[in-house]
Amino acid sequence: MAITPQQPNQLRPLAGQGPQRISLEQIDAKSLSKDKIRDMFRQGKLPSADQIVEEILIRAIQSGANDIHFEPIEGEMQIRLGHEGTLKRLLSLPPDMNDPIISVLKSRATLNQFEKKKPQEGRYSAVYGNEALDFRVNVIPVLSGERCLVRLLRKTASISRIEELGFSKENLERLRALLRSPRGLLLVTGPSGSGKSTTVYAAVNHVASPEKCVITVEDPVEYRLPYASQVHLPPDKSFNFIDALRAILRQNPNIIMIGEIRDAETGIVAGEAALTGNLVLSTMLADDAIGAIHRLLNLGVPAYWLASTVVGIVYQLLIRKICPNCKEEYQLSSEELQMVGAPMESSDLKLFRGRGCPNCLGTGYKGRVAISEIVTISPALRDMIFQKESILTMRAEAANFGFQAIRQDAIRKALTGITTLQEITRVLG
Ligand SMILES: [Zn+2]
Question: Do 133 and 61 contact (CB within 8 A), yes or no?
Fold first, then answer.
């Protein structure tokens, strides 16, 4: 099987090393009038769309952003950076700039320039300074033009250990036990951007060793794993996920990691791999741990198949941590006391929050940590999957085996001063 190595196709300078850096502030429609910028643009006095995109990318990389949103809104093109789940405005441009900017992004991701009526997705790699990055470019047509999201994946980021991800002591123990299973399907679920990949890589790294054969199939490869053979799905689609997985099974692996289960077909092949005596790890979109079972059933994965393969499901979200520089204690309101489930008489209960300082750009938060719930599939639960029981019935059964809902994990993280109640409400509602 051909494995296409992903070569960075461009080498770029970073901050201060490049001759042609431009000032975004000078062309921001919030500081200059749109008419003025439009005139400059028409007279060719503005930096080129290519230079503007380049500067936006450099700013995003330097500030540690995870994604960049380019969107045409009422009378302007707004560009915002996504940091740890919240958006910050970077720049506004006149609406005329939307087309040229989107065009540059499409060209870098080798998308069809002339297609403006359908969604498109592509990616490319580039090196900035010493950092290798993958850029995933997603374009959708909206009322006033096209909206583009660029996701930044840092390839040089190192793999975390499962102990470093923020799992509670109980959940870490549960995960370790699941990873000792010689075979079966272990799913890491959550919405997009919830750190699923980081967890699944850490989990593979935890079980990988020179005595075991570890093969992964990914689209694209996000981290390099020691002790593993990594199959990267080629952008030209010369072979697909199912081809790769069937071929991998013939190579006699012990542990298989699958980037993501997206449909019934990948779900079934993953199950097949688990049935043939492998420990299979994968990620999947889901709203909670038990919900993942129903999602797979709804996708069309047969119940008997699931019941005989799934060993456990991790569901996780990322929550912002209080900035250590400006952390302060405060007295809880009665509403907050109710939220943490404390009796009203314990009104002197104190919790923590960030005041906001230069270290956290005034947000009061710095860095993120996972909150999670992990369900281990007991024999009774296995039977319930087979019978396609309701989510509520399965949840009640899981609770008998010590399953704790994600909210409990989050509240515990607020009580121990890792995060705030406001942040829990933002993430969990
Ligand atoms: Zn701070």
Answer: yes
